[in-house]
Amino acid sequence: MKSKADFGMIGLAVMGRNLAMNVESRGFTVALFNRDFHKVESMLSDMPGRNFIGTMTYEDFCAKLERPRKIMLMIRAGTPIDEVIEEILPCLEKGDILIDGGNSHFSDTNRRTAYLRGKGIHFIGTGVSGGEEGALRGPSIMPGGAVEAWPFVKDIFLAIAAKVEDGTPCCDWVGEDGAGHFVKMVHNGIEYSDMQMISEAYFLMKELLGLSNEELSRVFSDWNNGELNSYLIEITSDILKEKDKETKEYILDLILDTAGQKGTGKWMSETGLNLGVSIPTITEAVFARCISGAKEERVNASKILKFESKPYLGDKNALIEDIRKALYASKICSYAQGFQLMRGAANEYKWNLNYGNIALLWRGGCIIKAKFLGNIKSAFESNPKLSNLLLDEFFSTIIFKSQESWRRVVALSVEHGIPVPAFSSAISYYDSYRTERLPANLLQAQRDYFGAHTYERIDRKRGEYFHTDWACLGGNATSSTYNV
Description:
54% of the residues lie in helices and 7% in strands. It is an alpha/beta fold. The chain has an eight-stranded mixed β-sheet, with helices on both faces. Strand 5, helix 5 (106-117) and strand 6 (122-129) form a beta-alpha-beta unit. The N and C termini lie far apart (56 Å).
């Protein structure tokens, strides 16, 4: 075994442990550190003969790393990251590299990159997706931050990343400062909406058509063999047929209908508001989790706010196909919103993002991996300045072919009192985007009436602002204009 390690891992919970094992399995020697030294001892005793070097202190840890030191932190996001940075800084030298592989907010990564640059240390904020299995076998990796550090970690990252069919790694340099963690946040926001839309499709087929779990499992399995091929569709088919070993009942039917969340979906919604980018489908998926948490209130409301739904008497197979098309069209809108947010962030933070390459990062190893991500890459390769995925010929054709089914599904859901917030917000987003003239003219007139906020006119050039004394109250004072 080498006396010095190629790579260091701080934090040996499941993700850190599995990533360390992944790195070591690719021929690198890994130094291990955890505040609870028992986790280091456990790895060394569980895997004797492997190229791991155990350490008890930061001084010992750093002394056993080749220069420049490449150190990955797999610990809880937030204050703990800052605490570890301050604790390990005295042991580092100029040119060393710290990597945050957790779910940190991109603004924290912006701040940490600048702070450490001032001390001669390179910081990389790295989104890692794929869960425990991905960490061990190959995750999707989204690094960003100090670009000077990329050549030193590139070979390790490319080695441990998931690979697509042609062997291309699901890893590439994303951009400056917090760009890597921003892209991971967008990944998670799309993940929220994907999961919500799949759940809505499941609920419609269960409630309206009365399909059994086995029938539903076969439907999702069939869908996974076509355009909707994806990790989430695949595992949904598996989930639907799994039975509890003791009760012999379907496990899904025993799970309480309250969804948890760790905050990245909320971060994305907040960022959309801050940047003035419309991402309603992703935001509705966050709100759907919020309202699911009000279980006791919903149970009580169900007894008071009654609605008698009529049974569905139409063609069962035709509706299943309509739901499939509605899911696909809604999914396209969700991804379009995610890429719109990245474009807004690139403009705001002066990041040079390659949207086609980002789509490729998600084709393997991560939760939202899906067949049509290759089509997203092709869309941006054909037109790097593409303003919205909906305008690409491949995707606009799918939407056009799915439109009637999509509208039928949303209308039928409303008619039968079945909530489909993601489906309905997606089609509203699509209709808003394709509508030449929206009723915002009245909204702006109202703002000018009560607050003298001014407005632009269609018969004058953009950038000229006007005010009307609507109620003949007099006065020429106007409010300043402001756009998010």
